[in-house]
C-alpha cells in the first residue's frame, strides 16, 4: 500500500516500506509514532497514505531541518519530538497523548548518517571517529583511546560478534601508544592489519574486515541494544488495544531481542526464560498477537535497488487488551 505520490528522499531509502505500511495499516484520524525519524521515510509514507497524525522521535539534531520542512508540508498532522524512542511514553505525555494506534521502529544507523563523513560512522570515507547519534556521551574515539584492552575486546566481541576481537584490541592498544586514534580510516587500517586485509565472508557476501568492529563501537557508544529493549517496553505501554508495533532490524543482535520480546509477549516463548513466571505462578496474559509469523525480509527487487536492505528483517505485532507488563530494571 505504497502511498500515492510518495517519493524516496535521495539520502535514505526506507527499508521494507510496503511491508511496514501493510502491517501498520494506518487509518484516517489514527495517531502514529515513528520512533526513528531519520530522513523521514516512514513518516512521509504514513502521512501520504491517509489523513493520520504522526509524532516522530529522534535524538539526532541533524534531522531538524527535514522535520521543519515536513511540518510545513503536513500542517497540523506532524510533530518532531527530540529525544530517544525509549522515552516515547514521557515525550508523548508532554503532548497530552497517552495512547497511540501504531509505532514504527527502524533500528540502527541511517543511510544519511553513514553517508556523512563528518559523523564518523563509516570507514568508507575518512572522518572524525565520532559515531554519536546525539547527546552528551563519549565518542568512539574516547572509547578506542581510553578503554583498557580486555574491556575493548569484550565490546568488539559482544556487539560486533567479531571472533578476532582480542587480536584487534591488542592492535588498537599498541597503535594508540604511538598516537591517538582519531580518524575512521586510521582505525580501519589498524583493524585490517590485525585481521588481514583480505575481506572475510558472511554467507555469500563479502565484508570489509573492519565492519564488525565499527558496528560494535557504534552500538556501544549509543547504547543501541539497551535503547531497543527499553523502546519495546515503552511501545507496549502506549499502544491502545489493536495498536500495531513494527520493528525493522539489520543484524542478529537486534533481531534476537525483538524476536524474543514478541515471543514472550505473545505467549509463544517456552518456559525457561528468566522473564517467565515460575511454575507455581499464573502465566501472564499475552500483550501482543503476531500480525505474521517470523520475520519478513526484503524482496530481491528491493535489494537490487538498495543493497543496504539485504540484511533487514521486519517483525510486527498487534496489541491485545491485556495490561502492559511492568518495565524491567537493568540488573
From TrEMBL:
Alphabetized GO MF terms: rRNA (cytosine-N4-)-methyltransferase activity
CDD domains: AdoMet_MTases
Entry EC number(s): 2.1.1.199
InterPro entries documented for this protein: RsmH (IPR002903), SAM-dep_MeTrfase_MraW_recog (IPR023397), SAM-dependent_MTases_sf (IPR029063)
Keywords: Cytoplasm, Methyltransferase, rRNA processing, S-adenosyl-L-methionine, Transferase
A GO cellular component annotation in the UniProt record: cytoplasm
Keyword Endoplasmic reticulum: no
Subcellular compartments: Cytoplasm
Superkingdom, taxonomy of origin: Bacteria
GO BP annotation list: rRNA base methylation
Annotated binding of S-adenosyl-L-methionine, by residue: 40-42, 58, 85, 106, 113
Span list, region Disordered: 293-331
Reactions the enzyme catalyzes: cytidine(1402) in 16S rRNA + S-adenosyl-L-methionine = N(4)-methylcytidine(1402) in 16S rRNA + S-adenosyl-L-homocysteine + H(+)
Primary residence: cytoplasm
Leading EC class: transferase
Signal sequence region: none
Function of the molecule: Specifically methylates the N4 position of cytidine in position 1402 (C1402) of 16S rRNA.
Family that this chain belongs to: Belongs to the methyltransferase superfamily. RsmH family.
UniProt protein name: Ribosomal RNA small subunit methyltransferase H
Organism: Emcibacter nanhaiensis
Taxonomic lineage of the native organism: Bacteria, Pseudomonadati, Pseudomonadota, Alphaproteobacteria, Emcibacterales
Amino acid at each position: 500500500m505504497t502511498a500515492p505520490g510518495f517519493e524516496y528522499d535521495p539520502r535514505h531509502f526506507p527499508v521494507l516500506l510496503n511491508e511496514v505500511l501493510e502491517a501498520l495499516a494506518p487509518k484516517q484520524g489514527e495517531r502514529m509514532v515513528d520512533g526513528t525519524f531519520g530522513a523521514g521515510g516512514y513518516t512521509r509514507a504514513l502521512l501520504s497514505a491517509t489523513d493520520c497524525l504522526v509524532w516522530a522521535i529522534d535524538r539526532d539534531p541533524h534531522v531538524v531541518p527535514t522535520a521543519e520542512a515536513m511540518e510545513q508540508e503536513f500542517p497540523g498532522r506532524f510533530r518532531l519530538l527530540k529525544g530517544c524512542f525509549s522515552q516515547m511514553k514521557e515525550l508523548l505525555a508532554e503532548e497530552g497523548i497517552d495512547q497511540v494506534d501504531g509505532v514504527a521502529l527502524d533500528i540502527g544507523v541511517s543511510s544519511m548518517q553513514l553517508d556523512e563523513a563528518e559523523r564518523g560512522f563509516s570507514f568508507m570515507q575518512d572522518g572524525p571517529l565520532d559515531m554519536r547519534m546525539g547527546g552528551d556521551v563519549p565518542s568512539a574515539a574516547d572509547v578506542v583511546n581510553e578503554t583498557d584492552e580486555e574491556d575493548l575486546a569484550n565490546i568488539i566481541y559482544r556487539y560486533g560478534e567479531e571472533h578476532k576481537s582480542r587480536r584487534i584490541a591488542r592492535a588498537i592498544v599498541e597503535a594508540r601508544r604511538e598516537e591517538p586514534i582519531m580518524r575512521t580510516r586510521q582505525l580501519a587500517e589498524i583493524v585490517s592489519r590485525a585481521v588481514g586485509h583480505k575481506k572475510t565472508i558472511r554467507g555469500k557476501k563479502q565484508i570489509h574486515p573492519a565492519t564488525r568492529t565499527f558496528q560494535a563501537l557504534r552500538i556501544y557508544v549509543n547504547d543501541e541494544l539497551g535503547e531497543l529493549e527499553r523502546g519495546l517496553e515503552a511501545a507496549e505501554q502506549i499502544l491502545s488495544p489493536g495498536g500495531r508495533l513494527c520493528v525493522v532490524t539489520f543484524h542478529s543482535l537486534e533481531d534476537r531481542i525483538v524476536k524474543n520480546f514478541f515471543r514472550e509477549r505473545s505467549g509463544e516463548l517456552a518456559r525457561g526464560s528468566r522473564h517467565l513466571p515460575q511454575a507455581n505462578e499464573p502465566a501472564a496474559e499475552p500483550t501482543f498477537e503476531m500480525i505474521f509469523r517470523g520475520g519478513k525480509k526484503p524482496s530481491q527487487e528491493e535489494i537490487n535497488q538498495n543493497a543496504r536492505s539485504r540484511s533487514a528483517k521486519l517483525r510486527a505485532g498487534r496489541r491485545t487488551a491485556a495490561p502492559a507488563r511492568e518495565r524491567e530494571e537493568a540488573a
